[in-house]
Design brief:
Blueprint (H helix, E strand, L loop, with lengths): L1 H32 L8 H13 L6 E2 L9 H11 L11 H14 L9 H10 L6 H17 L2 H11 L1 E3 L2 E2 L1 H9 L8 H10 L3 H6 L4 H13 L7
Parallel strand pairs: 1-3
Antiparallel strand pairs: 2-3
């Protein structure tokens, strides 16, 4: 029995050390990205792998642009659509989480988001898309690290450069060129609102650009952009 417990505690210690090393690895990456731009993300790599399964020559559309070269209209549209309290919260919108929980409770399954821009970025940079308790817990830890290591403007800048905007399309610059043949700096309010409306389901809207739901959400975002506070 003593041998069993000795082995048990050793295994537990090894697991703890591995988890700790993983958190340090993530923190080191985030620290580096405070002043250096990430060239890719876990989500981008997963999508590229999926595209290459169908076409070995597939490539992602992605081009990094600094914060100053992204239209303020797009910044306002994304805040209005995804996270109205972004500049004020500590990484978590507790009211939004509560509402999402209540919706999920009514439906008896996980369907609502409630994730902030910081949480979305944490997931995109390091995690897969599967909804599991472990992944959600790790997302929380990474979000806390993000908020402590980076300013809001830097979090938002990385977010706008790595999120998916279509089939193999990532980042604001690639999206602006893919849909409108212009740079991210030139996006109008209408164009920005349309792009922001696409974020929850970009591959679908890439194929269905005149979907009624997309048009309706675009109008709603347009009406809210004036109140959006950007970092």
């Amino acid at each position: 029995m003593k041998k069993f417990w000795r082995l048990f505690w050793r295994v537990l210690l090894i697991i703890f050390i591995l988890i700790l090393c993983y958190q340090v690895w993530i923190a080191a990456h985030l620290w580096w990205w405070v002043d250096h731009n990430p060239s890719s993300s876990a989500f981008m790599e997963n999508r590229l792998e999926a595209l290459k399964d169908k076409n070995p020559a597939a490539k992602l559309q992605h081009q990094w642009v600094p914060y100053s070269r992204i239209s303020n209209s797009l910044k306002q549209a994304l805040i209005a659509a995804e996270d109205a309290k972004f500049v004020d919260h500590d990484g978590f919108d507790w009211d939004g989480i509560q509402k999402a929980y209540e919706k999920d409770l009514k439906k008896g399954k996980l369907v609502s988001g409630g994730s902030t821009i910081s949480q979305q970025l944490a997931k995109n940079l390091f995690l897969n898309s599967k909804r599991t308790p472990w992944r959600k817990g790790e997302e929380v830890i990474i979000t806390v690290m993000l908020e402590h290591l980076m300013e809001k403007e830097r979090i938002f800048e990385i977010y706008m450069n790595v999120i998916e905007w279509g089939n193999g399309v990532f980042g604001a610059e690639a999206a602006a060129r893919h849909y409108y043949q212009i740079s991210a700096a030139e996006l109008s309010s209408q164009q920005a609102a349309r792009l922001a409306a696409m974020v929850p389901n970009p591959r679908y809207y890439d194929k269905h650009r005149e979907a009624k739901g997309l048009l309706l959400k675009t109008d709603i975002i347009l009406s809210r952009m004036g109140d959006a506070e950007i970092p």
